[in-house]
Amino acid sequence: MRSLSKNAPVQMRWGIFFPPRRSGGPHEHIPKTILNFWPRRPIRNAQTFPICLQRPGVRPIMEHNACPEASPATSQELDRLVAMRTQDLQSQLKLAQQRFDHAPCGHLTMDADLKLIDINQTLLDWLGYDRETLMSTMDVDALTSLISHGGMQPSLRDLLGSEDLASIEIDLLHSDGYRWPALLWSTAVRDSNGKLLRCNASVVPLTEQPDRPKETQRDDGLLQSFTDHLTTRLAYYDKDLICRFSNAAHAERYGRRSGELIGTHLSDVVLPELMPEILPHVAETLSGKLQVFETQRENKDGSCSAFEIRYIPDFQGDSVEGIFIEVRDVTEHRRTEEFVLEANRDLEERVRERSAELFQSEQRYRLMVDAIQDHCIYFVDEGGAVTEWTESAQRLHGHTRLQMLGRPYQNLLATGNAGEDEVDPAQVLRLAKTHGQWETRGWRLRDDGSRFWAHTVLTALRNETGELQGLSAITRDMTAAKSLEDVMNDLNKELEKRVAERTQQLVAANKDLDVFSHMVSHDLRAPLRHISSFVSLLQEQLGETSDRLTLQYLSSTAKASKRMSHMIEGLLEYARLGRVSIETQPVPLAPLLDGVIAHLKVENPDRAIEWVIEEDLPVVRGDAMLLAQAWGNLLSNSVKYTRTREQARIEVGWKVNPVGGRTFFVHDNGVGFDLEKAHNLFVMFQRQHHSMDFEGTGTGLALSQRIIERHSGRIWAETSPGEGCTFFFTLPFEGLEPELDFPLSSMAELSL
Question: Which of 289, 374, 412, 687 has its CA 20 to 30 A from that of 264?
């Protein structure tokens, strides 16, 4: 077996190590990445043996006679060694790249087309750019103008025809615009035929790079951050039309980020077809003239936008060193202007129409004012001098326009009768100014000497700020109404006289009626007591020995006499309520109802009744004794007519009456009554149910009605058969609702 040279070329054929006679071929066991690590010369003998690539050379793993054929274990070992070598080379490559990036001088590599292939970090730091910005620069002219100021571009192009170039001095250009001198060495790398493969350039600064103050860097950062949040497009181009600053909005318009435009020529940013429009403005700006113009640009979606463009020259002493560019989207502004212009045209048209309508309205108003017969209107100033005199005023008062203009309006207040009190014109003016309006009534004298009864309304006229502009006077001829009023007054006096006489007659009649009722009631009570007494004696005497029919007659007579006694008592009470005086006072209803309900519970101990009483019952004004009686009648009525219910429910509540006072209600779930018979519900001795079903004489509701009416209230009912009944009534309201010392015991005594 012949050995291999350590300096053999890297590329070689696999068949030298693994002849084709091997089934499956060598690629089945060894990865293709091994091609990069083969020695530089093929093995000359035809023997086959596994190898290990530890170093640039190779050595046999075992003697070829010991293992004539490769085994799977050998392939795995080879893969492991290849992986180790790959990792080792990657580490060396990374270390070399770090040394390249942090070399003390700047390095860059360009291909045969002078396109940037690589640049080290040292040069990037000197220039103030990121790697992506420079690597994306496609043209050598743009690249050299971006990082240097003269000299670099022709030097690199000279490499296309020569091997090496002597060092030249250039000015490195920082992204922030400042520059400093440096030396540039350029070297061409060619193949054996002399074809240019790449060129390498090294840069060494001649002076120390100037340090920018931290405050300046911070200010630039703040400026960039601030302008990036603006919708206005802002940029700065030097006099060579190289971009030195751009905010985010300006860069996004051209599909780039703000940093990507730095160092780019204006012609590489703007579309070629737009340059003829822009260049004249650029030239004018570089000559020192401010340029402001508008233009239309098509958006990506096909729509058009309007832009206001401002080119502001950057004066450095007497020379212009650059251009500040401000581009503002005024599309919405122009649309708003068009909308406002259209709205103004529409408004002007409406104003013309409205003016014509107002003119017609004024004409109609003047015709109306001049045409009215029994009214007139005229105007006076603050001092009372007449400023406008209408035809209607001339017709009513008889004075001409010439007679009244500028004259005091007090001439119109003359009564023509020395015995009548005249109105003080100064006082009327003052009251009208103070209150806004003032009215006067009285006889007024016309120019021809006749008189009429006038009703005059003087109104103060003020503008939006409240400043007095004058006063208007509207006068109406009320002579006919005055005559009618006098007649009505006479009739009213006669009517009042007759009412007083009739009232006196009714009072006398009611008094006689009350006396008659009292006498009849007392005269009936004595014989009724005798009848009741004799019936009781007969029942005691006969006992159980008499026949059944006789006992039944006696029982019916006793019940009838008892009922008659109750009716007489009710009649006496009804008559008494018509005579008794009402002693009004604040009456809290809560303790009053507690006393009434307590009394009813004592009278009906076996009844299961659910009482639902609102807790916030108000204070009313009335006679406590009479109100307790009215509440007792209404609640006992509900107790009586719920007797057939297993669970009786009686509710008491109230609500505010819109016309004043308070409205109360008593609702039960009793038998109710027929609404067709409701007209006699509150009539004495009228009943809705037979006495055999429910006891009573029919006086309770009539007495309650009379008590409520004596308190200036009213009572009514709502019901339907079998669904219960609700009584409503109104009572005067004691507005302050004072906390009164009205004990519960007093209410209980009143209810009894």
Answer: 289
